Sequence to fold (243 residues):
Amino acid sequence: MENLKNKTIGSFVAEDFRTAAVFSKYRIDFCCKGNRTVTEVCEKQNIDVDTLLENVLQVVQSENSGTIDFNSWPLDLLADYIEKTHHRYVEEKTNVLLPFLDKLCKVHGAHHPELFKIKELFIGCAGELSQHMKKEELVLFPFIKRMVKTKESDGILSQPSFGTVSNPIAMMMHEHDNEGERFREIAALTDNYTPPADACTTYRVTFAMLKEFEADLHKHIHLENNILFPKAVILEKDFVEVV
Fold:
């Protein structure tokens, strides 16, 4: 048990994504801040470390009912999965949520002025994520895929315009932090996505979609911050000669 206290939150979730539910229950950020140890998190959030680890181990030691082991996937496959699953999800749900939020502000804004701030935050999120994903799709992911193919063919990796893969990764992780913080504000403003007593059907559906959007974003960022990016940095180090 003692050695697990110095293990990072992100490592737990990378090895078994089912543990994400435990960390979420304790309001522990396993994606943007997954590099913190269990001890660090528990001390900061006043959580009993032994109780948390017992809950985590119960999940880890329980029978695995078909959970996908993303940690074992080749990096090119993982990059494709993130793009086709999570990037497409963001694009599709954004197109639905923006008009819903606009409608809520018009109909309920007078009695619930926080809706205007929620809408402002989500518009910012939508715009930033759109640019963020394009940078990954056009620059970072193609280079990761090229590294995989070059490694398989025992070739020589030509130096990219950004120098080293750590440079765009640092930028992507910074942008992840920004969106994580933005959604923490949205969660606070919505009382953790709890619709008010006078909420209409659209109001309730919108809050449910925002909650789902945040959950998908957490998984999306986790796959990149805790699995794809660290392994890409390690893979780049395998190339002794860079020209």
The mean pLDDT is 92. Residues 192 and 211 are 8 Å apart (CA to CA). The first helix runs from residue 9 to 15. The chain is about 70% helix and 0% strand.
